[in-house]
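During the second year of the project, the team shifted from modelling isolated chains to modelling whole assemblies. The rationale, set out in the original proposal, was that interfaces cannot be judged from single-chain predictions alone. As a representative example for this report, we include one of the complexes processed in the last quarter. Its constituent sequences, exactly as entered into the pipeline, are reproduced here:
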Amino acid sequence: AQSVTQLGSHVSVSEGALVLLRCNYSSSVPPYLFWYVQYPNQGLQLLLKYTSAATLVKGINGFEAEFKKSETSFHLTKPSAHMSDAAEYFCAVRGGNTDKLIFGTGTRLQVFP
Amino acid sequence: NAGVTQTPKFQVLKTGQSMTLQCAQDMNHEYMSWYRQDPGMGLRLIHYSVGAGITDQGEVPNGYNVSRSTTEDFPLRLLSAAPSQTSVYFCASKNIASGGLLNQFFGPGTRLTVL
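Output from the structure prediction step:
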C-alpha cells in the first residue's frame, strides 16, 4: 500500500525566503511521486513529478523536489518565495500496477511581504 | 481544447435529494476519475474509469455511482445526498497509452453543500 504524509498543514514564509514543504512517502514498490498546487478557487495543477529518472526534479514556477530513497522523502523547495506562491500544495504517490494517486492532506503556504 | 470541464460550479442540495455532477474532457483520455476534497483529508478517490464501459471503486465509493458510456463523459451521481457529502469534487483525466500515464488534468471543481 502507498501513502504520503505532509508535515505541517500551514507554512508561512516571508517574500524572498526559502520555501520548504515536506513530504514523506510509504510504498512497497518503487514509487512515482508528484506535487500539485491549488490556487484559491482553482483546480489542481501539476507542479512536478518523479518517475525514477533524475532524483532532482525541476518543475514550474521555480519549484523543485528531490527524491531521497534513504529518507523516503520528496520535499518541495523554492529558493525565493513570491507572493503569488501562496496556495495549497499536495504531495501524491502512485505505486504498483494501479493508476490510483494517493494524496496527502495538503500544506497551505502563506507568503508575507 | 477546453480540457476538463465540470458542471455545475456550485450546488446546494437538501438531504435525500439526488443529483448528477457532470464531467467532460475533450482530450480523448482513457482514464477519468472523481475525487472529493475535504479540509484536513486531502484528496480522496471516489471512482475511476480506464475506458468506456469500465468503472471501478476508489477509496470512498459509498453513496456515489458512476458510469462511462463514452470516452468524453464521466458523470458522478449522488443517489440520496447526505450532509457528509458536503465537499469539493474534482474530476480528472489522463491519457494511459501515449506517455501521459503519470499526468492527470484536473477540472475546476464543483462545490457541493448538502443541508
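The CA atoms of residues 20 and 77 of chain A lie 5 Å apart. The mean pLDDT of chain A is 88.
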